Structure formats: C-alpha cells, structure tokens
Amino acid sequence: MLTLRRIMMALEGDLLTPGMDLETECSQFFASDLMSDVLAFISPGSLLLTGLVNSHVIRTARLVEVKAVVLVQGKRPEIQVINEARECHVPIIATGCPMFEACSRVSHSSSENKR
Amino acid sequence: MTREAVFEQEFPVKGGDFSRAGNVSWEIRNLLKELGLSSSVVLRAAIATYEAEMNIIMYAWEGRLLLSVVPGRVHVVVEDSGPGIEDIELAMTEGYSTATPEMRELGFGAGMGLANIKKNSDAFSITSNVGSGTRLELTFLTNGHRT
Questions:
Q1: B21 interface with A at CB cutoff 8 Å
Q2: With contact defined as beta carbons under 8 Å apart, do A46 and A67 qualify?
Q3: How many whole angstroms separate alpha carbon B104 and alpha carbon A37?
Q4: pLDDT tens by residue, A98-107
Q5: Is residue B146 part of a domain?
Q6: Contact B55, B107 (CB under 8 A)
Q7: Whole-model pTM?
Q8: Interface subset of B 102-131, CB within 8 angstroms of A
Q9: Which DSSP letter does residue B33 get?
Q10: Is the N or C terminus of chain A more exposed, i.e. has fewer CB atoms within 10 Å?
Q11: Is B95 part of a structural domain of the chain?
Q12: Shortest Cα–Cα distance, A3 to chain B (Å)
C-alpha cells in the first residue's frame, strides 16, 4: 500500500485539487492514455497515470473509482477539468516525470514499501 | 412501466455531444447505488452503460438508454438512430474501430467498447440495421451469480 502523499513525494508532484485526503492508500496502479483501455482493464480503486488531460479522464476515473489521477509529462488540465475533479472527489497529482519515469518511480516506491 | 419493474427510467443521449458524455451512465450508477445493489453490479452496469453512451455520442445521431430494475436483475435497452453496423461480428472484435482521430484524441475509439459492454453484462444482445440504427439489450443479475 502506498499513500497518495508518498506517491506525490516520489513523483515530486503537485496536488491540483487541494484539500483532498493524501493518506488514502493505493495498492494497484494502471497507466494508459486510452480511456477505452481504462474502462476495459483497470481494477477499481487503482491509481491512474495518464498523459491525457481532458474532462473525460475525470469522468472515466470517477466511474471506475480510481483513488487518484496522476498527470505525467508536466501536463496541466484546464481549470474546468480541475473543478470537475474536485466536484467528483477525484484527486489530481501533476508531475513533470514522463510516463515511463513516473511508472518506474511508483513501482520502486511500492517495492520499497513492501520490504 | 412494465408490470414487474420496480424502477424504470429513460435517458436520452444526443449524438456528438461530448460535453455531456458520461452524465447518463453516472446517473444510472448513482440510481443503482441508491437502490442498494452490490458494488460489483453497480460497477459493471456503470462501465457497460458508459461505453454504450459513448458509442451513441461518437457514432449515432441520437439515442436513448432505458433502464429497468426488476427483482433479481437490471435490464438496459440501448437504442440509437444512426448509421448502424454493417458487420456486427467484426465490430465486436477487440481492437476493431472506426473512430475518427478526434475521438482517439479524447482517449476513446480503441475498439474495446462493444466487447467491454458484453464482458460486463450477464446477458447481451445486439441488432443493427445499416442506415437506421443499433439496439443493444443488456442484463445484469443482481443475485451475485454471473452466468
């Protein structure tokens, strides 16, 4: 289990949805830019890493009950997307890491946590 | 309302309206949750109806989802007026897609939609008439046993 706080630290990320609980724990992680694949393959309660920043990411995320969305590669969504995420209680963490690096860091933190 | 339905509601969906995409399936998800159905059934129905809603928005001119909840199952009929599907077997193949680049930019159109609807349903049927539209019938058993 990794808390969102730990994930955010590992990714040197920023929380774009202030006030959300960073002690929420995640044990499953899923990375994709295809919401079709998210809908087809993600396990509910996962952390979603993506390079897509439109509102469909949030709508997909809330439906499959993700714990948080990590936006990679320094991408920032428009304010209405952030507002929608706040309304849906979906935390958004933004990181400058490219997708591979972000996945690698989360995986490393997860492995360290299991030791 | 059909005789045995304990709950029935129709949800119109407008083709091409990406700004409201996901609203109908979210409403259905919340209704099923309020009715006290198990989280597994709610999730499967939410995913299947989201895919169906997106299909209407992406490919049809207009459509509707008709939700009915009866003892032991949730039933959803999805009907659209649209170009229809010429080869249903091909359209059901994972990865086959006729999505435009714009749809793909939004993260959709990976060719998983119909297959994912079927995967999440306990019973699934599809009929389509080219130039007229497509109709899906989905059933979700609420007693915890998948067929």
A1: yes
A2: yes
A3: 12
A4: 999 999 999 9
A5: no
A6: no
A7: 0.91
A8: 106-113, 115-116, 119
A9: H
A10: C
A11: yes
A12: 23
